[in-house]
Amino acid sequence: MGILDLLFGKRPEVSSSNFPVLIPKLSLELEAIREQFLFGGVTALKSEDAPISGISPILQKGSELDSALKAYQLTCIVGFAWNYMAFGDRSPFDEALTQRLDDGDVNTIKSYREHYLDRQGNIELLSTSLAEDIIPNVGKSPAIV
After folding, report:
1. Residue 14 forms beta bridges with which residues?
2. Torsion, Cα of 1, 128, 108, 93 (10° steps)
């Protein structure tokens, strides 16, 4: 029995009939989280007087950084969501959400996800892998200083 079972009394289920409403909302939330992550990181660096010239606080859609963040989000969300859906809905959910997040970078997203798959279930290792992937890519977007 999970925490959601205790809170709601019954395990919530997500079915493919919910995908047309769920996936657009989820993709907007995930986009906002990616943007907040970068903006917050640059703001934190600036508050510490770190050199940030050349680092844009604006996330460029389809960039390498954006793709790595999407892959991380998909790995986490899909792994969590699968606990709340029938086996037959898992792959269509994964594919539909991946396609919805595509900004012309779906192959890059899939490449990062392949890299993260063996870390699935170990959030600390997954987060470390993400950090290793994004650090070289911060600042590759056009600078707005």
Report:
1. 85
2. 10
Amino acid at 39: F
Secondary structure (DSSP) of 26-82: HHHHHHHHHHHHHHHHHHHHHHTT---TT--SSPPTTSHHHHHHHHHHHHHHHHHHG
The predicted model scores a pTM of 0.81
SS3 85: strand
Q: What is the pLDDT of residue 102?
A: 93
First to last CA, the chain: 50
Residue 143 binned pLDDT confidence (cut-offs 50, 70, 90): very low
Distance CA 126, CA 132 (A): 10
Q: Is 20 helix (H, G, I), strand (E, B) or coil?
A: helix
Residues 28-87: tens digit of each pLDDT: 999 999 999 988 888 888 888 887 777 778 888 988 989 999 999 999 898 888 889 999
